[in-house]
Design a protein that fits this description.
With 497 residues, this protein is mostly helical. Helix content is 53%, strand content 9%.
């Protein structure tokens, strides 16, 4: 079953395992030592516990490096927690061979870590008592109570936002965390909740829930009920790249600031067809206004005639100008408010961002259309520009079902939504060479970074003569740029000689 042989002055052993011969140096000049190693290997093979000489050289650090490489290659989001775990483990096992890390040693390490955690917790409690921040566990509120306190403090926010928070607390947070005391909730629990939510929600929706619960724990931290914010420390859901089907929904793509897809935009020729096929009067004026101003649908449906100045004053000449202005001051919302049991009613709020309060120019083509529509527009107590037959502000879904989609169908075009008219406005400006800051200002984005991200496809494809104009600027005041550069090169060589 085995043999001992000599190479130079060192004894080697040879033995068979599963039909294959293995050779191994005894690292000794003693034949007795070689025979002892041979008997050990034969015994290990007979008991099914054989470990080859290559495996014996593997250390903990080798295994840790291989694990990290696997996480990096597969872009696993939990790599941060794995790095932290390895950092702790290295303090105990860094120089050990993998075969020497036994179950007993691992159990002892776990017990030591628990003891260390208990000591650290005791030190933290003593420190907080000294600062007057300590609250006994039995006095801590349950998550449900804290969440309600936080929610009540947000009653002055937009009704749509408040409704989203209410749904997140009632549907996703209270069922899983509601009956737990705050000291029973940690990062590991939040990451477990994140994994459970990910099974039924998009990554964007999951991260929105985590952001809400982090805000709730921020209130607990302000009240000195907790020393940290485990929700803020929990890793967010990974926004992995997935195949988009032809009818991909916003839920599939994520609903945050996402790059716009070309099929969501109508080009100027398609806009012309929509306007031709739209019903004259209300809908044709609505779509023309949306396309030539880039206003959000909520801003359009909140627009009053007092917000429109069909004739303005030229800032340079002081004379009346044919170009008017639209003052965007508010936005319409049909979202139901908490504890509002009656019929849903329209509510008006400031625009979505501070930059949303803006003044927009009215092109002459739009000014004429608005003048004609003002003569036909029904009167209403709200002085609305675009309203429904009953005098109430228009609902976005109504304009979509009875105005835009029928016009798109008659024009033989794909279905898009009202927001696509805003996107079409922005993309047309970009393709015409408008600076990103101008597009941002007209759209009411909070920063140029938002504009760049949403319309990255169009900015990448814009070609201008900027480089040519830069080169021509060098020749200004000089008849011969080549002669200038040659003279500069000669002078440079003279100075360095």
């Amino acid at each position: 079953m085995g043999r001992v042989f000599k190479r130079g002055s060192v004894y080697w052993i040879a033995y068979c395992y599963r039909g294959k011969e293995h050779r191994e140096s005894s690292c000794s000049t003693s034949e007795a030592q070689a025979l002892k190693l041979l008997k050990q290997r034969i015994g290990e093979a007979a008991n099914g516990k054989w470990i080859g000489p290559v495996e014996e050289r593997v250390t903990f650090e080798n295994l840790a490096a291989a694990l990290l490489t696997d996480y990096e290659v597969n872009q696993l989001r939990s790599i941060r927690s794995v790095r932290l775990s390895i950092k702790h483990l290295k303090a105990r096992f860094a120089l050990d061979r993998a075969v020497d890390i036994t179950t007993e040693r691992i159990k002892k390490y776990a017990a030591d870590r628990q003891r260390q955690g208990a000591d650290n917790a005791l030190t933290d409690i003593k420190s907080r008592i000294g600062k007057g921040d300590y609250v006994a566990s039995k006095l801590l509120p349950k998550f449900r109570e804290l969440a309600e306190d936080w929610f009540r403090s947000k009653g002055d926010r937009r009704s749509g936002t408040v409704g989203n928070w209410r749904a997140q607390i009632d549907l996703h947070l209270n069922p899983k965390l509601g009956d737990l005391r705050l000291d029973r909730i940690d990062v590991a629990l939040f990451e477990k909740v994140r994994a459970e939510l990910r099974a039924k929600l998009s990554p964007k929706s999951v991260n929105a829930v985590l952001t809400t619960v982090a805000a709730i724990f921020k209130l607990a931290a302000r009240r000195k009920l907790v020393s940290g914010n485990p929700a803020a420390d929990a890793e967010r859901a990974f926004m992995s790249a997935t195949e988009l089907k032809d009818e991909a929904t916003k839920e599939q793509r994520g609903d945050g600031v996402q790059p716009l897809r070309p099929e969501e935009v109508l080009d100027p020729n398609e806009i012309r067809k929509v306007l031709e096929k739209a019903e004259p009067g209300y809908y044709r004026t609505l779509f023309l206004t949306a396309y030539l101003t880039g206003m959000r649908s909520g801003e359009l449906f909140a627009l009053r005639w007092s917000d429109i100045e069909l004739k303005g004053i030229d800032a340079e000449t002081g004379r009346e100008s044919s170009r008017g202005r639209i003052f965007v001051r508010r936005s319409l919302s049909w979202a139901r408010v908490e504890k509002d049991d009656g019929p849903v009613r329209p509510r008006f709020f400031p625009p979505k961002t501070k930059a949303g309060v803006r003044t927009l120019p009215i092109p002459m083509e739009l000014a004429g259309a608005l003048r004609r529509w003002k003569l036909q527009c029904p009167q209403s107590e709200h002085d609305m520009v675009f309203l429904m037959l009953d005098g109430q502000p228009m609902h976005r879904s109504t304009a979509l079902r009875y105005g835009l989609w029928p016009a798109l169908g008659r024009a033989g075009l794909r279905r898009v939504n009202m927001h696509s008219l805003r996107h079409s406005f922005a993309s047309a400006l970009i393709m015409a060479g408008a600076p990103v800051t101008e597009v941002q200002s007209l759209l009411g984005h909070s920063s140029p970074a938002v504009t760049l991200k949403v319309y990255s496809h169009w900015f990448k494809n814009v070609e201008t003569d900027s480089v040519d104009r830069l080169a021509k600027s060098l020749t200004t005041g000089s008849k011969n740029l080549g002669h200038f550069l040659d003279t500069f090169e000669v002078a440079l060589k003279t100075n360095t000689a």
